[in-house]
Amino acid sequence: MTDTIAHELSVELVEAIDEADLQELCEATDAAIIEGGGFGWVEPQGREVLARHFRGVLLVPERELFIARLDGHPVGSAQLLRPPRNNEAQAWSAQLSHAYVAPYARGHGLARLLVRRVEERAAGLGHRVLNLDVRETQSTAIALFEAQGYQRWGTHPAYAHVGGAPVAGHYYYKLLEPSRGRRGKGAP
Questions:
Q1: Buried b vs exposed e over 109-122: b needs ≥16 C-beta within 10 Å?
Q2: Which of 14, 92, 127, 139 has the most CB atoms in a 10 Å sphere around its CB?
């Protein structure tokens, strides 16, 4: 007989982060980087660099930080990037970026919940398209995005440089359903 433990899963949009959560988020980020996925860095950066990064994200008006929590502890994040106000032609689209869940917190559905929350926020702000890109070596992420309805529209053969060699990357988009909520500034 197998015991199953119910875990509390949550994703929140944050405007500020306390020191304890920041340290746990940095640990989760380094773990994801070491595992090879989801953040852009290929080598672990250490707490100081990552803490500066996350504090900086919170200062950029066009970026929103989502934190994924497992049993109340930060174990991953994603960013919603909105076009600047002067880019009216692309105001209807946004980008999902830097999405990951630490390896020790995978397998609970948290990555799907994280992506869904970013989509809901983007739609709530009036965006109708969500774009993302991913290295071709990140097969788990690719499977997740494709299962959630993202359409691959292109591949760049030299998208990134990892381990001394070029790595291809794929570009995706998803059409979002209009939200019944208020539209954000700059959104169509």
A1: ebbebbbebbbbbb
A2: 127
